[in-house]
Protein: Dicarboxylate transport domain-containing protein
Organism: Denitratimonas tolerans
Amino acid sequence: MERRQPTRKIAVILALLWLAQAAIPCLANVAVLEIDRLGTPVARAEGVEITLDWPDGAARGQLNLRATLVDAGELGYRWRALDGRCALDRDADGAWRCIGRVKARGASGLDLSLRLHEGALRLELGSGRSRLAASTSDREGVFGLELVKVPAVWLQPVLATLWRDARLTAGSIDAQWQLQSSEDAATLGGPLALTGVGMDTADGRIAAEGIRAKGKAQLRLEDAATRIETSLDLSGGEFLVGALYVALPDHAIGFSTRLSGRDDGRWQVESLRWRDPDALDLEANAMLDFSTASYLRAAELRFALPDLSLAQPRYFDSLAASLGLAGLAMSGSAQGRLALREGDWHALDLDAQGVNLEDGQARFGATGVDGSLRLRHGSDAAEGTLSWATAHLHTLALGAARLPLRSVDGGVALTAPVSMSLLGGTLRLAKLSYAPRGEDERLELSLALADADLGTLSAAFGWPAFSGKVSGELPEVRYENQRLEFAGGLSAGLFDGQVRVSQLSMERPFGVAPMLAASIDFSGLDLAPLTGVFGFGEITGRLDGRIHGLRLVDWEPVAFDAAFHTVPRRGERQRISQRAVRELTEVGGGGLAAGLQNQVLKAFSSFGYSRIGLSCVLANNVCAMGGAGPADGGGYVIVDGSGLPRVNVIGHQKQVDWPVLVGRLKAATEGRMPVID
């Protein structure tokens, strides 16, 4: 309640100015003027009583102004039990002066000063350093209005008539305005300065703090509409509009508007201009409806961003963060147009020149982005092109590319295949299309990779230093309803063999606890380069295998059926190093057959084998282990030796906790002997 009291004070200046014009000319010993009702286009008063008491021979008199109600409805003010009292005298130049106090029910008092000279009346109300002054003019219905360090909250009722959900919270206002009233309209406006002004809305979507501005403003109140025009230079402060947060710089930003509003809560932004030198130049018009949840019903924006390195931290940091792109850095320049209809976007045109992008988490980036992006939400199609000099996805570097694009119905698609360098090979993007589907979205692509360097790929992902070439293709990839499917599977040439991935899909790939499902088959993999990079020991020969029914939740395996076994190939030796024998023994939880002792094992660097096999079926965090076949006396064969010296590795643990097995594999690949409890 205490905050509401000052907001009523501005009405006093209108009421007293109006009443005093009738009171002061009625000079007499005692004069009383009673008026049941007074009305003008600006305000009305009821129960008015004006009393002048001037004793005979006295140097001064007493002027009392009372009214049961003063209602300036167009400006949002209502004042009850108005009571103004002042001592009236006459100064040397013949002017009448009256100094005293004025108050009303529910409002604190204000200092009152009134002066009448040759028909011109000036009235001031003050409280501390804040002062409101009003004066008449020689034109009927025209008043001067001056505000000096007036608290912004005093103007809350005026704002409430224009925007009922907004609330002024801080700051002060200086103004030199003129109020002109007629039978059908009232106009208020002139020079304006804001210092530290703050405001917010009931839903918290719009807020401002510390706003400084200088310029001019004009408000026109009509029976069916309200018109506002402003032309301001903003400097300093901050504001929030939805996800857009802007911290204004200290230099001047030009801001001008022309608006018209109706009683039903609809506002037409006829023009809006925002000019921030070298950062953002914006022109817009819009239709707002504050009676709806989505108040922006339609808009047309044209913008220029001469220097994105200035505009990005000032205007786009909060928007990027709301999209999961916190820390996004941009440079270069851009311009474009955005159209909105019925609260949703309708068209976007974006022209880029030498734009550089870098994600704050290094997930993607590009340099030298040029071209035109044309997006359309309706049935009319638009075409454009985008190109870049270099780009990367995580640690994968992409070569230069130019993408011809076509947009219709809110989606965008390639109009021709695109090729670019990747990992020393070539990535061919045969298809790329994105389309919204109501609340969901759909992404489709088809790509192929030829002759990529496996060593470069390994370094990019932090893998061991594999060598060789990798090729493969994804004939059809679809993302829809938070599910990513790889129709047709993935085939790749790897380690001089073939790897085939089928039934590959992901659920919630960008959400909480993503789940991946797949089945993997491989054949003819060359074991020498595969094992040589792990510090596992060396095995030569060829490997076939499978990982079927693979399920990963939050990137951790929860189920699979895996089996690996060697296959002989004519002309290729099958040898296993003594270190690899040790590691396979530990992984399988087994031992060396035929009583071969460690000292004998150390005497040889490698052994021949006829077959190697190992399998694991994971369920409920336990691996059911197996090998190349059953072993005599129980267990399973992991390594079936051949020739002399001969070594066999037998596994005995058929049930192994998955964390234990992972520990063994990690120790083996790092060249350490695991500790098994």
Q: What stands out?
A: Confidence is low (pLDDT under 50) at residues 1-13, 591-597, 672-677. Residues 30 and 53 are 4 Å apart (CA to CA).
